[in-house]
Design goal:
Two copies of one chain form a homodimer.
Chain A lengths: L2 E2 L4 E3 L4 E11 H4 L9 E3 L9 H20 L8 E6 L5 H7 L6 E3 L6 H14 L5 E8 L1 H8 L15 E2 L2 E9 L5 E6 L14 H20 L8 E4 L3 H13 L9 E3 H4 L12 E2 L1 H17 L5 E9 L3 H5 L6 E9 L2
């Protein structure tokens, strides 16, 4: 039975482990520094579909099926799936997963969705509510650009603080196991709003919530950054990462020598339009379910923190002058 | 510890009970047949805010605070909140709940959100992950009209099968208790798609998923409609309710004499623009956290099924010719 230990961190005692995972990306991500790590990619940005939105659904479907294949189980063995994405009304998930005979829990955490879904899946398995639970999310550069910014055909330039939405999806399957990387704890973040209103600077909007969740976690568990092999954040990019360091240093927490950001790992920095890094639900999802999992499995990492960071805005809220609150959820993954 | 008993139904053994609840509606809902049941209403459709979206956030905030007040606890006593709504990127919830010091889990289930959030809150409490968990959702006629259909200023007429989005919010607080109505089981639905494409007929789009979840529940628990005082569906309206009856009769399940639909209860049927009934996340949320809870507390009901029904479309998916899949989640609430 799970046991709460402090405000926000939930220790899971029954080794909900990652028994399968899958990642799918687009060509730009495949051409990046960790491109070899991903399971699947396609040179066609539409992945054989006729719209970008359907392409996004398609990559979620492929990610889930890849994870099921790796785990050697069928969708009927999966008791529940947690899924969400950035598209209005989360249609990436709906149309990616419809037809699957799996009870469906829709979630919305913006770019924090991977950690959010994996946290819920881990809790369900830890508590014996599910034997196998899945978490999946996605984003797509083209569907995000036209929904959040401008039609691609405008060829609009973006600011140096802006980030490129990753075309990618990641799926994770959780079940109890004694010999696979397992989720030791989950920390659900609060909504943190420091009044940032620049929709071209998501890193700055998300960093305060990342700092808040990390601070809470170290306090809850009485640990320090040195206790972990590495700490991953989702998609803070260059600006958000710098700001995260500054915010944490104020509390005497220095993560600099043990930190990496999925948004800084996924693209070739010299690429036009990458600007401050990668972003989108698919960013941390694809990196977790490839690069990170490979290194947990081969023993390069044995005890890590993985956090996805979300900016809770919509084009409507931005146009109405609202600020951009953030939320970040954190997971401690360990090797047995 | 929760124990799975069959495919989709999770029996909760530790009496996660409803210790507080709150409902807020607009004037049209207040003027309806069950208007006296709601905690709060405002004649101002903007609830003192300058946009409809901010009004929706405001009613979520009021609903949560009403529930906390009734339970006699403060927000610091609440360990986690599950929240979502119909607005793009769920901004109704973000801006309604930002500033609250409660770990935040964003969910998206369209109009199934109340049952979805309450299911998750109940599981967290049942498993000892939270002492107190909250679920909240909302919808607003004006914010929904302009997002899903037309600007209100057009004065567009709607079809007889269409439903009116409820301006309303409902919040529920769950904690273990031996003397309050408790959640005995939850059943997460699957995505069900029968190919309905008429965005002015949500009832028809959602009814197959409602039938699927009810069928699954009766099979899982080996019970019949006669075992329950009443079965509530969320917002099927006239068309969806008729279709639900037809679909269930094929499986020899007759719920007709024990069924009511929140979408059929909330409005005066003679009102212009109500058409086939009420809809929106706020519909079943407001009815559960007023009319239904009052009757559980006074003993009129002792064993009920409550199901919210969601249509998983977006304006984009509809314009791209996609069908409208549905998802429905079901809760069994009992008196001790």
């Amino acid at each position: 039975m799970a046991e709460r230990i402090c405000n926000s961190t939930i220790i899971l005692g029954n080794r909900p482990a990652i028994i399968g995972y899958g990642s799918v990306v687009g060509k730009t991500e495949r051409d990046g520094p960790i491109g070899d790590e991903f399971d699947r990619f396609d040179v066609d940005i539409r992945f054989g579909e006729d719209t970008f939105e359907k392409a996004e659904s398609r990559i979620q479907k492929i990610a889930v099926e890849t994870a099921l294949n790796k785990a050697g189980i069928s969708e009927k063995d999966c008791d529940i799936i947690f899924a969400g994405d950035l598209l209005n009304q989360c249609i990436g998930s709906t149309f990616g997963l419809k037809g699957k005979e799996i009870p469906y829990v829709g979630i919305y955490g913006a770019c924090s969705t991977m950690a959010l879904g994996l946290s819920l899946a881990s809790i369900f398995v830890d508590c014996g509510i599910a034997n196998v639970a899945a978490a999946v999310t996605s984003s797509h550069f083209c569907s995000a650009e036209r929904q959040y910014r401008f039609p691609l055909e405008y060829g609009a330039l973006r600011t140096p603080t802006s980030q490129r939405t990753v075309t990618g999806s990641g799926a994770t399957l959780v079940s109890r196991s004694d010999n696979k990387p397992y989720i030791n704890s989950v920390t659900f973040g609060k909504i943190v709003d420091k009044g940032v209103t620049d929709t071209n600077n998501m890193g700055a909007a998300m960093a305060p919530s990342a700092a808040d969740t990390i601070r809470e976690y170290f306090l809850d568990t009485n640990t320090t950054p040195e206790d972990y092999d590495i700490i991953f954040t989702g998609d803070l990019g260059e600006v958000g990462t710098k700001l995260l360091y500054e915010l944490l240093i104020k509390d005497d927490i220095d993560i600099r020598c043990r930190h990496n950001d999925c948004g800084l790992m996924i693209y070739d920095k010299n690429l036009r339009d990458v600007n401050a890094g990668g972003s989108g639900c698919g960013c941390s999802a694809a990196v977790l379910n490839s690069y990170v999992m490979h290194r947990l499995e081969n023993g390069d990492f044995n005890n890590i923190l993985f956090m996805s960071t979300g900016a809770l805005l919509s084009p409507t809220s931005a146009l109405q002058g609202e600020s951009i609150p953030g939320v970040s959820h954190l997971i401690n993954i360990r090797n047995p």
